[in-house]
Structures are given as C-alpha cells and as structure tokens.
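Support request from a user on the community tier.

User writes: "When I paste my structure tokens into the form, the page sometimes reloads and wipes my input. The last time it worked, I copied everything first. Here is what I submitted, just in case something in the input itself triggers the reload:"
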C-alpha cells in the first residue's frame, strides 16, 4: 500500500508585472501513478498547469507542482506599456520633401536615380578657354533615407479574452490608448497609427494579451489601403474568421 503524498517545505513563487501568480509546490509521493496525479489545494483559486518529477534515491518520487493564473482581476497599474523607437531605410521617393529634393539634385524619372553630376555644374568656357570641372552630385547613388518609426505595446492579464481585442486589426487610429504617458513630441503632419494583430497567451485561468500599434511614416497610413478592421465583415481583408 502506498504512503500518503507529503507536501514538502520549500514552496516558492512570484507575481509578475501583469499580476499573474506563479507558485511551485514540492511534494513527495510513493508511486509513479501518484507522481502523475497528486495535487494540493492552494486555496487561492489558481489552477495547476504543469508538473515535474524524478525518482528519489530514498524511494518514491519528488514532484514539483506548478500553479499559474490570476487570483483576482488584474489592476490597471499592473498593465505594462512599451514604446520601441527605431530607424529604417525607406525609398528616397517616399521622403515627404522629395519634390524639392528631386528638383534641386536633378532626379531622373526614367532612371529613377540622381545623376552623377550636380545639375548646377556649368559647361560654359572659362576665361582661359577651358571648361569648368563638373561637380559631383552629393546624392549620386542615394536610393534611400533613414526614417524614424515606432511600435507601441500594451500588455495586460485578464480572466477572459476581451471582446474587442480582435476588432480593428489593420485599421488606422489617430492615438492608441495610453500612449500619451510617454510625452511624445507632436508628430505633426499626416502621421497616424495602425493597429496590429495582438498576441494572446493562455496562462492557467488567465490570458495574457499584448496589443500593438505601429507608427506611420511622414505621409501617414493610406486610408484607401487600411480602410477598416480586416477581420470584420466589410473590412479590406475579405471577411472574418
């Protein structure tokens, strides 16, 4: 007859920044069957999500039970906000001042490139009867420029998946919720934000949700291309799931 499972000293755990509780409980059991099935009631309402075990040199099995979830609904101050700024190479034609740049540096629409010689170089003869040397175009060979971009993330935990989290994916928003806390300089012009697909992860009795928005370039996201949520009926993605 097997011995009664025994809870050992050494229970540990943590609460992450989103309020999700993790608890590891060590136990000793006599049989492999008990190693696969034994549990304890923590009394705080979070479920058992995984277990690990190994055979003990003294006999029986050492088991670690891993509990994870929300004890209660997470509070607003347990929401994590991230703002990642980056630089990327964009085509020079997409520069907001491209028309002025093209006129100044002689952009060739056929070649889609700047010429080797600067357009203001003179070919007229000098006082000594020699031609002046053409100046090299400072934008010769330039095909792109560095443009600033950003991703804004909001991560939180909930007992259930929020009903609206999958709505508006691929749609334009002027200002994502909570982004004002970063004291961003005014983007001015036509810049706006695009709602990206969220990441949803089940953790015990809770779900961890990360919502993301991407900052547009200087000309903004085009409303004809991103006209509405791509999963909703009538969106530009061709229907829902």
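"...and here is what came back when it finally went through:"
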């Amino acid at each position: 007859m097997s011995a009664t499972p025994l809870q050992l000293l050494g229970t540990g755990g943590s609460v992450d920044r989103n309020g999700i509780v993790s608890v590891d409980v060590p136990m000793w059991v006599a049989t492999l069957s008990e190693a696969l099935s034994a549990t304890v009631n923590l009394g705080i309402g979070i479920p058992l999500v995984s277990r690990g075990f190994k055979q003990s040199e003294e006999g029986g099995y050492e088991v670690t039970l891993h509990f994870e979830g929300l004890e209660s609904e997470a509070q607003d101050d347990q929401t994590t906000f991230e703002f990642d700024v980056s630089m990327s190479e964009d085509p020079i034609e997409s520069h907001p001042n491209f028309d002025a740049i093209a006129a100044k540096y002689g952009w060739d629409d056929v070649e889609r490139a700047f010429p080797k010689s600067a357009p203001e170089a003179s070919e007229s003869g000098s006082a000594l009867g020699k031609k002046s040397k053409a100046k090299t175009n400072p934008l010769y060979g330039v095909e792109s420029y560095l443009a600033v971009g950003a991703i804004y993330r909001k991560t939180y935990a909930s007992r259930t998946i929020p009903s609206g989290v999958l709505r508006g994916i691929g749609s334009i928003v002027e200002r994502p919720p909570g982004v004002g806390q970063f004291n961003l300089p005014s983007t001015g012009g036509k810049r706006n934000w695009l709602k990206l697909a969220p990441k949803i992860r089940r953790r015990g009795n809770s779900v961890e949700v990360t919502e993301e928005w991407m900052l547009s370039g200087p000309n903004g996201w085009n409303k004809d291309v991103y006209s509405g949520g791509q999963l909703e009926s009538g969106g530009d993605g061709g229907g829902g799931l």
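Agent notes: The reload is a front-end session timeout and is unrelated to the input. The helical segments are 32-37, 98-105. Residues 7-69 form one domain. Escalated to web team.
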